[in-house]
Structure formats: C-alpha cells, structure tokens
Amino acid sequence: MFKITFKKSVTKDLKKISRDQVNNILDKIESNLSKTPEQYPELKGKFAGLRKFRVANYRIIFAILEEKTVLITRIRHRKESYK
Question: Please, which residues bridge with residue 9 across strands?
C-alpha cells in the first residue's frame, strides 16, 4: 500500500467541486490509487514525471515519491487540468 499525501493547493481545487464528487474522488483515490499507482499513465512534455488518474470528468495529477508515497498535486476538471 502506498501512503497518499496532498499538496496544500489541492484543498483549493476540492473547494471548487461539489461535495458528492469530492467524496467519490477521495474514495477512488483510497481504493485504487493507494494500491497500484504505477499502472496509471505518465504525462509528457512539461508535465514529465507526473502521472494522471481519471475519476469521471476529473483528473488527479500525482507523482510517485520514494518510500511508497504518492503526492497528489492537482485535482481538476478535465478541461482545466493541464493548464
């Protein structure tokens, strides 16, 4: 199991999302991302080194760090996630 950590800016992202969606996203992070984060695709270009995880219309951008830790850097709607 990987330890899930959040960047401070993620709280701002979550405030822009409805409570039901936030609960769904957090449940998916806990159930899927904490087990096998390396299975999700790596990003390219200026986002190289990061990975993406999709939950409905939202994208969770994260990095896998040492010591089995996943750092979630951004949670945004798919239209805004790569800006």
Answer: none
Give how far the C-alpha of residue 18 lies from the chain's centroid of Cα atoms, to the nearest Å: 17
For 3-16, the pLDDT digits (tens) are 999 999 999 999 99
Strands 58-65 and 51-55: antiparallel
What is the pTM assigned to this prediction?
0.89
**Level-2 CATH architecture, domain 3-77:** 2-Layer Sandwich (3.30)
Return the beta strands (E) in 1-83 as ranges: 3-6, 51-55, 58-65, 69-77
pLDDT digits (tens, 9 = 90+) for 33-69: 889 899 999 999 988 999 999 999 999 999 999 889 9
Nearest 5 degrees, angle CA 16-CA 63-CA 70? 85
Say if residues 62 and 33 touch (Cβ distance below 8 Å): yes
